[in-house]
Amino acid sequence: MQNILPQLLQLPPLLIGLADLAAAFLFLYGLHRMASPVTASSGILVAGIGMAVAVLASFLYAFDVDPAAQPRLMVNITLVFVALGIGGGAAWWSGRKVAMTAMPQMVAIYNGLGGGAAGAIAAIELFGGKAAGMTPFIVTLAGALIGAVSLSGSLIAWAKLDGVIEKPWRFRGQQAVNGLLLLLTLAVGAYLAVVTHGATGDSSVAVPALPTAIYLFFALALALGICMTLPIGGADMPVVISIFNAFTGLAVGLEGFVLKNPALMIAGMVVGAAGMLLTLLMAKAMNRSVANVVFTNFGTIARHKQGNIKGSLKPMQASDAGIAMRYAASVIIVPGYGLAVAQGQGKLYEFVKLLRDGGVSVKFAVHPVAGRMPGQMDVLLAEAGVPYDMIFQLEDINDEFATTDIALVIGANDVVNPAARNDKSSPIFGMPILNADKSKKVFVVKRGEGKGYADIVNTLFYSDNCNMVYGDAQAVLIKMIEAVRGLGLPAVA
Ligand code: NAP
């Protein structure tokens, strides 16, 4: 027995190592599966199992607790279970009830809480004087700064997306104020590093830092996150959330380094890298730089004058449009943000099935930034049961519009605006668009004269081959279905 005990005590570190390895594999494999809509939901499950493994493995650290801290162990473990219950319960409830159009807000709030958690770990290290040595101390400070900026910035992003804050808050010299805030935060951080570790920084002994300076450091970092996000327009928030997502990942990874917790390091780096890639892909699909999103006021700079437009808007009844599509040989459907607003995806697929029963070739064309978050249209269509082989990405379908009878643009606007192709003065010039305008006929379903996200006029709507079908997307689809059913045509075998 005496011989076995030392070996048993060696087990937790070994189990932690194996669990971290398994968690890392599950995170990466889950992420890989998320790359395709066909495997995405199982990818989320796989990554979730990885997270559960990492959380369970963290309880094994309890075997390694300093004997002086043993009396508090049970209290701390109880608190962890309470926190897991509250956090897990709230996430489960909100995840189930969130509307598809409110998804960006939910991502913003979860992301902010992740940044806040990284900042809280850093606070414990700093107040407790646990970060021994200059390098861990600076890494802790970096995690604290990035985590705090991500927390307050994400909360502002949530408030803007949810309509709690309605207007961007801008004033002259705002960027200079933000720069000054950053410099002040860094200066307080440098002061803390020098006070605790000496000017040479060669101390490897943990020294408690000055509480007032730590409070000031966090207050400045939180203010920086707020001031950075307030001037950015609400419509640019999805890109901003993605940037904060990358920040949160980085902060978590840095705190994983401080705590010597490999699972935290890997999870943080995966989230950080994925967030940064997503930000770059979104910016590329909008033909804008990340700096342009963060530092300019998109949509308020360049506006199209109505006078530039040739042609007129030509309204059409929903029933006539529906019947025309039933008699067409080929239809490409371009879904956009308005379809998600109308929750018309179910009716859309019902209508598509009617067309296909009549022998019409129907395909969906999805733009990479259609909707308000990446993949929103793919998820929406999958929710309605649209088979994946009917859904095509921009580069795979764009050449087909020219030989297609009818393009049905439903709740989409910017992603089919030809100004992106041929008007250098347009704020969306250079953004790749779906070539709906090249189809023989285009039907656009929208409620009225409302503009899209970029707040500019769409020249497609005025072109000779385009008709406007006004109304809420779901209500229009119901009329189209009734009209086609009313024809009483037999299904084509
Ligand atoms: P959009 O340009 O925002 O246009 C949506 C259109 O839907 C509007 O013109 C609106 O016109 C119509 N609409 C709204 N509610 C409707 C309803 N209930 N029924 C029918 N129509 C309705 O959408 P998009 O073409 O999908 O383009 C997405 C835009 O968001 C792009 O500019 C993109 O750069 C930007 N963006 C996307 C992401 C992303 O990750 N996906 C991130 C950031 C920014 P009415 O008001 O007249 O109905």
Explain what the structure shows.
The protein is α/β, with parallel strands linked by helices and 493 residues long. It is built from 17 helices and six strands. It has helices at 4-34, 40-58, 70-97, 103-127, 134-161, 174-197, 211-229, 237-259, 262-285, 290-295, 318-326, 337-342, 345-357, 376-384, 394-397, 419-422, 473-487, and strands spanning 330-335, 361-366, 391-393, 406-410, 441-446, 466-470. A six-stranded parallel β-sheet has the order 3-2-1-4-5-6. Strand 2, helix 14 (376-384) and strand 3 form a beta-alpha-beta unit. Helix 5 (134-161) packs parallel to helix 7 (211-229). The termini are far apart. The structure holds NADP nicotinamide-adenine-dinucleotide phosphate (NAP). Residues 238-239, 282, 286, 336-338, 341-342, 369-374, 376, 411-415, 445-454, 472-473 line the site of NADP nicotinamide-adenine-dinucleotide phosphate.
